[in-house]
Amino acid sequence: MEKLTFGWEEWVALPELGLPAIKAKVDTGARTSALHADDIEVFGPSARPKVRFTVHPIPGRHDLTITCSAPLIDRRDVTSSNGEAEHRFVISTNLAVSDQRWPIEITLTNRGAMSSRMLLGRQALNNHISISPTEKRLQPELSYEVYHSAGLRRTAPKRALRIAVLSREDNYSTRRLVQVGETRGHAVEVIDTTRCYMAINAMAPEVYCDGKRLPRYDAVIPRIGASITAYGTAIIRQFETIGTYCVNGSAGITASRDKLHAHQILASKKIGMPTTAFAASPKDTSNLIGLVGTAPLIVKLLESTQGKGVVLAETKKAAESVIDAFRGLKANFLVQDFVKEAAGEDIRCLVIAGKVVAAMKRTGAEGDFRSNLHRGGSAKVVRITKAERETAVRAARAFGLGKAGVDLLRSESGPKVLEVNSSPGFEGIETATGKDIVGKLYDEIEARVKPQPARKRTRP
């Protein structure tokens, strides 16, 4: 390795941490190097712990934050130049200077009061660095401009992420989210949504669970059950307030769960759906049926899930009886046109990040017009048309959902959206298509949590 000469201050890079330019003070009196870090948290398995932290690489620019993670190699007591001892986390990463790079140890500490965001100690200088203590920046100049460049996202390294799955169930979907995430080197924690609570204040909004403040997650994957939609979306709103990336936002989940609201959103976006009517007064039963068309009709509870609370009324008299029964229970419901040509089949399109990543055809059990797999239906892979693909993407976009199961009916007048599911299961569609759907979801999460270029400050 070619010998380099350092002055008392140099530009360096820590590429594995996503820090392409940082000014470092050279201090031969210190053994280990130090990096300014905030929000330091240990995560991952105890046998292979990692540490997550944030760095403000430009002095005075607290609006620019780079989130980093690295394997934790030690915890060490370090005494500073003023005699104060501090217990610090120690990581190992590569230092890049000029066209050379080599591994160094770095302790993490708060250097907010220091003019240099990094200190280079003896261990980092090794035997191939000579020091010229009266000069500075003898190596190639770097620039903070790199943090304002769109290339920052493109060159950012893959790092271990800390991810929360909000779920109350130990089912296939939850287990797959954990398995795939950990295979990729991430730390995935399953959090029971109902055991979370919130501290709501302007200065430090937090989420707690079982008496402890939850850490700063890189991403949250909501799997909120229909029975706890209101509370679950409140928890997600709190994560959104903190600034955590949530695969599905609270507003989209809330709107998709309210079937009346969902159909109003679809109608406002001119997205095809079965003709639908809603009314509160029992005097409107006949007119309500007339708005939808002739029997057979579908009568559907607004809170229905997995095909429960969905009734096929084959005659007008049967429809009136079902409507009267639902009203007697003071239940909210919709009346919909029955798409006969669908013949008990629908298409489930799994949309992730604005793309249909898989599709399957679901067929109801013998004698059942509902195609839900939970009710004994079957599924097989299907090739969808361009119109069906575009309809599914538009429907997911209408609710702002990063992950959605869009159910379509094939009608004579084109695809019609039956439902937009904000917590679709993965088992049926992965089994039917043989695709790694969860892996595609992690592709999107990893892309979304990469650093964003910072805005340049304009001088007055």
TrEMBL record:
Q: Which domain of life is it from?
A: Bacteria
Known cofactor(s): Mg(2+); Mn(2+)
Provide the ATP-grasp domain boundaries.
263-446
> Can you supply one Gene Ontology CC term for this chain's record?
ribosome
EC class name: ligase
Keywords carried by this UniProt record: ATP-binding, Ligase, Magnesium, Manganese, Metal-binding, Nucleotide-binding, Protein biosynthesis, Ribonucleoprotein, Ribosomal protein
PROSITE patterns in the record: ATP_GRASP
Asked if ATP-binding is a keyword of the record, the answer is yes
Q: Which Gene3D superfamilies match?
A: 3.40.50.20, Acid Proteases, ATP-grasp fold, A domain, ATP-grasp fold, B domain
User: By its UniProt entry, which Pfam families does this protein fall under?
Assistant: RimK (PF08443), Rimk_N (PF18030), Zn_protease (PF05618)
Gene Ontology molecular function terms on file? ligase activity
Catalytic activity, EC: 6.3.2.-
Recorded hits in NCBIfam families, A to Z, give:
PRK10446.1, rimK_fam
| Name of the molecule in the record | 30S ribosomal protein S6--L-glutamate ligase
